[in-house]
Specification:
OB fold (Dihydrolipoamide Acetyltransferase, E2P), five-stranded antiparallel β-sheet, GMP Synthetase, Chain A, domain 3, six-stranded mixed β-sheet, 13 helices, N Utilization Substance Protein A, Chain:P, domain 4, alpha+beta, single chain
Length: about 375
């Protein structure tokens, strides 16, 4: 019997990767529960299992050995406790393993479906890919390999619940870290991500080394790197945006591929008026407003896009608002567009009509205007 016990513990240890000491302690606790059921609730009772021989002893007062004949009911109780302890030990081991993998990418095989949810096999355990974490338009089949972001790991009764996501923006972040060594080595930083899963993603990057072209490194030779990431996301379009410390320039960059004529920023309220030529309006807004929506999420500004004609019609009212910084597109030496950032101007009250002296000179407390050019 003792040899069978040791072999059983060894098999469970190898198959479920549970520490042997945890198993021994669980069996001792189970046998103690059975012994108290058999001999009464005596606080002096203890059960010990010899780790080398497997010999079981039930002790009273640390010395008196009680025969191990526990009876059928007590033995059944011991069996139930042992099974429970093994399940708890297995749950704790899985939880410890996947807790460290939370917020990372894992690969698994689609095992089955539970309604609209997908159950993914991850080695010795399973994870759930809920409906709301699936990308619209993607199809899943039993046996398919899938890569997903580990969004949450938590204990739920005797099991560990692992929630996967294919829609989380950090899925894109982790894919970039895996595909682009410069990001993994921290030579390029990811400053922000805005995503509409299955359709389009904008990711802002910045190089900490002036010799490295952050956009070119992310795209790769002939676009191989960005293509691999797009393929992993099911053909989702991924745009690389160069981050800039000046918010006006960053707004201009974020609205690519549209050409921006002018940006009026109100950093106090987090709003911006973006002026474009008439032929660039639909491009700046994007299909169903997607481009401006993603740019707004990426920059943190509430963007309002208008045409030059609309701006000119309300130019006086817009330009006099407190906290606006005007960024005008200019031609640089290469003929490309850049950004000229002018300082804040002090407005009059919005409800009052402009005074005559306002037209000729700004208020005395208006700060001196300053401008700087940034190459496009």
């Amino acid at each position: 019997m003792n040899g069978d016990l040791l072999r059983t513990i060894d098999v469970i240890h190898r198959e479920k990767d549970i520490d042997k000491e945890v198993l021994f302690e669980g069996i001792e606790q189970a046998l103690l529960t059975a012994a108290k059921k058999r001999f009464g609730q005596k606080e002096s009772l203890k059960v010990r299992i010899d780790r080398a021989s497997g010999e079981i002893q039930v002790l009273e007062n640390e010395s008196t050995v009680i025969p191990i004949d526990l009876g059928r009911i007590a033995a059944q109780t011991a069996k139930q406790v042992i099974i429970q302890k093994i399940r708890e030990a297995e749950r704790d081991h899985i939880y410890t393993e996947f807790e460290t993998r939370e917020k990372t990418i894992v690969s698994g095989t689609i095992h089955r479906f539970e309604g609209s949810n997908v159950v993914v096999a991850l080695g010795r355990t399973e994870a759930l890919l809920p409906k709301h974490e699936q990308v619209r338009g993607e199809s899943y089949h039993i046996g398919d390999r899938v890569r997903a972001f580990v969004a949450e790991v938590r204990k739920l009764g005797p099991k560990v619940k692992i929630i996967l996501s294919r829609t989380h923006p950090d899925l894109v972040r982790r894919l970039f870290e895996l595909e682009i060594p410069e990001i993994a080595d921290r030579l390029i930083e990811i400053k922000g991500i805005s995503r509409e899963p299955g359709y389009r993603t904008k990711i802002a990057v910045h190089s900490t080394d002036g010799k490295i072209d952050c956009v070119g490194a992310c795209i790769g030779v002939r676009g191989t790197r960005i293509k691999n990431i797009g393929d992993e996301l099911g053909g989702e379009k991924v745009e690389i945006i160069p981050w800039h410390p000046d918010p006006g320039t960053f707004v201009v960059n974020s609205l690519t591929p549209a050409r921006i004529a002018k940006v009026l920023l109100d950093e106090r309220t987090g709003t911006a008026v973006v002026i474009v030529d008439g032929d660039q309006l639909s491009l700046a807004i994007g299909k169903k407003g997607q481009n401006v929506r993603l740019a707004s999420k990426l920059t943190g500004f509430d963007l309002n896009i208008i045409t030059q004609e609309e701006f000119e019609a309300g130019k006086t009212d817009i330009a006099r608002r407190r906290g606006l910084r005007e960024n005008e597109a200019i031609e640089d030496a290469s003929g490309e567009e850049g950004v000229d950032a002018a300082a804040d101007s002090e407005p009059a009250e919005t409800e009052e009509p402009p005074r005559a002296d306002d037209a000729s000179a700004p208020p005395e407390d208006e700060p001196e205007q300053r401008s700087s050019e940034v190459g496009g």
